[in-house]
Amino acid sequence: MSALLSESVEQTVAVGRAIGAMTRPGEVIALIGELGAGKTQFVRGLAEALNIDPRKVSSPTFVLVHEYEGGLAPLVHIDAYRMRSPGELEELGFEELCQGAVTAVEWADRVLEAVGEDRLQVHLDHAGDQQRRLTFKLFGAWRDRESRLASTKCPICGRDAWPLLEAYPFCSIRCRQVDLGRWLGESYRVSRPIEQSDLEQGD
Ligand SMILES: [Zn+2]
User: How many angstroms is it from 180 CA to the middle of ligand 1?
Assistant: First the structure.
């Protein structure tokens, strides 16, 4: 699967929100990426989708688990940065924590075996100062959402366009505006009323 390019922190939050809207309670999202790659921003988006105040979400580095209640479903936010083996996640009571909640695991690559088979894996990589490259890997029950996560081609420029982004089916707001401009410029118009001048030209 190709990678989604997030242009800003706000866009990474928006992608998290779109993913949150298609996540069912009991499901797990495994976040993999270096420091500052946007994992916690992504979790803020998940919180928004669950109607939980995103400002409450902070990087849980010194506390292994944060649980946010009061939304459509509880959000369980786990940081595996300090875990040395999948066993540590099991000891935390991971399976019980996940039940009925949307669970996000940061630094999931350190404990992947314990995260389970039904997971959405999100890889976040630096692609510039603000830009981040997001890659999705679907496992188990998440596979039924493959088409909702896959990109199509932007009808204006042919680059990847993502259903997770606001500008869809275009790749960007810019291409959406180009499309709108064409409509306003009437270049898409197939027919118009016949005018006297048309008839005269045929003479
Ligand atoms: Zn485009």
Answer: 13
Does 155 reside within a domain?
yes
Are residue 174 and residue 103 in the same domain, yes or no? no
Distance 155 CA to ligand 1 centre (A): 7
Strands (E), 2-93: 4-6, 28-33, 65-68, 75-79
124-142 per-position pLDDT tens digit:
999 989 999 999 999 999 9
pLDDT digits (tens, 9 = 90+) for 18-77: 999 999 999 999 999 999 999 999 999 999 999 999 999 987 667 789 999 989 999 999
Task: Give me ligand 1 centre to Cα 201, in Å.
Answer: 38
Residues 6+ apart with CB under 8 A from 14: 45, 164, 165, 166
Instruction: State the CATH number of the domain containing residue 169.
Output: 3.30.50.10
